[in-house]
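Sequence in, structure out.
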Amino acid sequence: MISIDGLGKTYAGGLVALNNINLEISRGEIFALLGPNGAGKTTLINIVCGIVNGTSGQVLVDGYDTRSDFRVTRAMIGLVPQELPTESFVTVWNSMKFSRGLFGKPANPEHLEKVLKSLSLWDRKDTISMELSGGMKRRSLIAKALAHEPEVLFLDEPTAGVDVELRQDMWNLVADLRDKGVTVILTTHYIEEAERLADRVGVINRGEIILVEDKDKLMRELGKKQLSLHLHEPLAEVPSQLAGYRLELSEDHRKLIYTYDAQQNRTGITALLSELDAANVRFNDLETSQTSLEDIFVDLVNKNR
């Protein structure tokens, strides 16, 4: 659905915002674009949406060039920006009607009603923007982006600073859009959103894509599992006979942490427990934990500095 080839963006002052971006996003896919502040996420989105021109490279949306066929591509895209633009004296309903008409779509009040109800906004449809709370303004932006029934939806930090209820509504809405074949590109600082929703994850840092991978495969290949043993008595150091397990001792010396690959046939846990018994190391409890997508993201960005 989206094909980005050799995309670069250098601003007049010499700042390189994007450097040789190559990316393919499939129809009906939920793609999470992660990166720290200033990494180039919003610049990339704005170029695909036709708001900013790239310096080099090409962007195609469903085979149409975003420069030479800009009217076609813009009509296929809905954008929910980070900022909350103020159309202070326009009602939610009229804002959606205007947005739909702007793209040449015929009136369809049934569609607008369905969108508003999915975002718990129906009872606010006649409210002007300046009277909405921050969370409700965010909902109205999402409704406006969906008014013309786009085939591609960009959500740029859509749930930043909003309530839990909206985040739940958003998650349900995104899942529903995917079922209808809409391509969704999501940027977020709430990485659990990407972990819950995305089919694939891309990580951008300093204007370069450093990784694009299937989310589940990424979690399997880069995710680690840990076994934490809560000790009966604190240890001054890890016993020498356990050195082969590369155990970590917590700061309070009351926990031993063993990191292992859960995909391997032999995790080493059985042998470790036997060795602990032989070394007279006693523990009261144990627990396992899986590395999260956030841990993986932080590691990738730190390695790329």
